[in-house]
Amino acid sequence: QVEVLSAALRASSLDAHEETINIEKRSDLQDELGINELPNCKISQDDSVPLISDTVENMDSTLHYIHNDSDLSNNSSFSPDEERRTKVQDVVPQALLDQYLSMTDPSRAQTVDTEIAKHCAYSLPGVALTLGRQNWHCLRETYETLASDMQWKVRRTLAFSIHELAVILGDQLTAADLVPIFNGFLKDLDEVRIGVLKHLHDFLKLLHIDKRREYLYQLQEFLVTDNSRNWRFRAELA
After folding, report:
1. Which of 30, 54, 57, 227 is the right S-S partner for 50, CB 3.0 to 4.6 Å?
2. What is the pLDDT of residues 172-217, one digit of tens each?
3. Burial code of 42-62, b = ≥16 C-beta within 10 A, e = fewer?
4. Per the confidence metrics, is the pTM higher than 0.90?
5. 207: which DSSP letter?
């Protein structure tokens, strides 16, 4: 909806620009001929004004280019100001996003709420869906921080929702950013691994077939559990 409205505003601004040009041309022609009015002269819009759908496609390609450029820039070292700029977006108020990203600050967990990181992890797929995959670079660092959190409840929350996040991000971002975290969850505690195991099919079906085959040999690793009496884990695997 934001893209369509932005495209409509851009198209209307182009219409206004065309109208201004035609009026200026008309006044110049009147000055040259020395008359007050030109008979049968009507302001017509140029047919070359782009359609809204075309503008949206151009915006999509521009966003895709910006996203790719940000991916490349993430591989290099940033100054604090540059890092701050990479987390800027125009979907929600920036102050609101900054407040959300600050929820992973360890000092907040000690002074505000010990469960705050878990709440942040629980709502992350919704935030990612709201911002869109073109703004994933704003959340990537926060997601990696949560995935390595000391509390297993935080990692468990992410493990249960990683397949939903993969649908939001698409196959390319999933392969680049989520697969390494997914592999880490496979070697985590049973409480975390069962989240991955429960939605194993939902996640693997989003990967390319060559990458998918690599996990066939890792299924047997699920037979090794922290507690041999954990029948629920074996039942989920079965």
Report:
1. 54
2. 999 999 999 999 999 999 999 999 999 999 999 999 988 888 888 8
3. eeeeeeeeeebeebbeebeee
4. no
5. S
